[in-house]
Amino acid sequence: MNGTETVEDLRSPAAVAAKETRRRSRELRLAADTRTDTKNRLRARPAFDAGTPAPSEQNEQFRQLQTMSVDEAIEWISACSATDEPGKWDRRRREASAHILNWLSRFPSDTWDGRWLASGLDQAPREGLKELSERLSRPEYYLLTGVSDVVRARLVRPSYEWLFVSKWNSIRGNIAFLDFAEPEEAVRMRELQLYQRSHELLRRNAENAIARILVRTGKRLGQLTGEDVLAYSHIARKPERHAKEHLAWELLVALGPLAGEPPTLRAAWHANVSNRRYTVETLVRRYGIPESGVRDLLIDYLEELKPNIDYGSLEGLAYRLVRLFWAEILDLNPAQKDLRLTPELTAKWHERMQVTLEGSPRREIASTYFAVRALYRDIAEWSHDQPERWAMWVAPIPFPRAESRAQSKQRRQVEARMQHRTRSLTPLLPAFMRSAVALRERGTRLFEQTQAAAHGQTYMVDGVTYCRHDPPIRTGMPPRARIWADVIASEEGAVLLAPIGKRADVTAMEQDGFWGWAVASTLKETGVRAEELLELTQLSLRHYVAPNTNTIVPLLHIAPSKNDQERLIPMSPELVKILVEVQRRARGTDKCVPLSVRYDPYEKTFSEPLPHLFARVFGPTQNVLSYAYIRGLLNRVAEYANLQDGGLPVRFTPHDFRRLFATELVGSGLPLHIAATLLGHLNLETTRGYTAVFPEQVVQAHHAFIERRRNKRPDYEMRAATAAEWKEFEEHFLLRRVALGNCHRPYATPCVHEHACIKCRFLQIDPDQAGRIEDMTENAEQRLDEARKHQWLGEVSALEESLVHLRHRRDEAQQLAPAHSRMPR
Question: Does residue 761 carry a pLDDT above 90?
Fold first, then answer.
């Protein structure tokens, strides 16, 4: 080929035209938004689907809309907008829609959805319309009106990111779309009781979510599925954004489209992700051991035990037998084909079991030994009944019985540590409960004063200065669902509930204070497990009419939990008051306690909708308190009380209250078998291990020994008192009478306070001397003013201390006054 020859283009004209169209579309395509702002900070993304095709849609009407021409699409938009209120549809909006459709038609695709993606507008929700405004020489607001009508007419399906970020919400957004697309269903939804009792902010979030799903999927509301909502929830979730689809899910369940789905979105999440119930085969296979006869044996063995144990125990047993036992055996000897282990292999496995992969001592050694021994014993026993299934796997237990007996020492050590902890916590329990009450009362005071304050108004609660944060809400925005206040300053010694300079959620503080008191008080009065506490419902409050006295005895019904055995606990008057308060809080403004679904993290199951008592409104729904939340509440109370033992901070766990309750029952003389019944124990040894009472028999024997030693004293110690000794003894009691009451110092001890009786702990106040105390207090206050005036600092310090004791004595006299007045004269 030389330079004078002409090369003929052998490509088809259609291919040349397609190439040219693609070139022009690249020039016309809008630039995607930058991921950084003007300060070069990475922008948070509310969703992650910009520029991706919408889900495939089988809706026949939607497919017809996608193939319309420009003129047909304009007429369709006009017909859709004809249902608007009079005066809303005009020539200018028709022209705006025509401009957008004509511009989109220049991009290569057979559908309007494809043209929308090819235009790049979906990936430019912030700056796309601004750039298009410059290209078409049209105002940005004018083009936004056209895009809004195109979206509302269901010609395009923007991404969730575009729906979140663009200005579509500011002109004809989500709620307007819902009213237009589903007017009848929108009315039905807003008439639901669930919708009406929800906060306005939650309603708006739910309607926005439903509208976005309808826009993105192109479906009608009755065609939505649970997968559509779960996909939206997954795509639109990010760390800075809380999931706001809970009420939307429940409304769709009530309306009918999701009638066959779990009742709550949280339940659907758990059913859709990994933390659900696995089959036995999956429990074994997930540890990655290769296929072998032993693996099939472990599956059969666990399947045999499955009907008789709960799921949590089954999962734990699979972990010990598969992960800790057989996987380690194969790692030591990959050629092992059966359960017959050599002594050398057993010794190596035993050594490896002592520490974890991180090098720390392993805690579940004893339980693993017992699980392995049970495996060998069960196979040997079952082989007599089904030899064809189990006999071939019978083998000697790899470690002797002494190895298991050696673990008894560890169990005794664990029991000793538990009892030591119980004895350490017993004297701290009153202070803990007082702090729970104080924290509740403080939260209530803070909530009431913050609610009464105006925006920017400062006020003081318990020595801490707050400033109400409640700025005016922009027009069209829903009211705030929570009360906020800024922490400004604090007096010396005041306990802070939030750091100074931070904004505090007063609503959460009040709720945490109440639930901390309610949880701690109920656990203290009942000794129930944490799981049983969270399972309490309004139906758990029962009563019994005693046949002998014909009196009503309130009872607390504990549903079957750990050992599948229900029980009834007689309720004290204090417990009745506590549960009435809990019931009133759970009920809120409703006439009865709302239904809620509880998720059991151990059993991986959801309960039926029940009126749970320990439940609160979290987001749009009534949710049962979680284990993490109640542990946090107890830790917060302990921190507020500043409890310490030997200089170390002390924390209470829910199970500590169970041991304290058992110790109090047995220590007060209740028979052990009755205490076991109240605690729900099937074995008395379990209850005995829970109690940490002091050894009464040892104490009594020691007292008897002291008494015998006294009886054996020399004769000269038993002589009669002389006249001088008896006179001294009588004068001691005569000298006990003082101006303010009586002195109770022991016999033959000197007055160590030099007759400064007001400071002495042996002084017993006479209520009739209350006036004298008032005179002394007034005199001391006058002397304190004089000392401060003359800067007599030593006198100031001494008088301030005296005033503290005087006021304490005054309080004692006031407390004793009613009882003193009732005494016979």
Answer: no
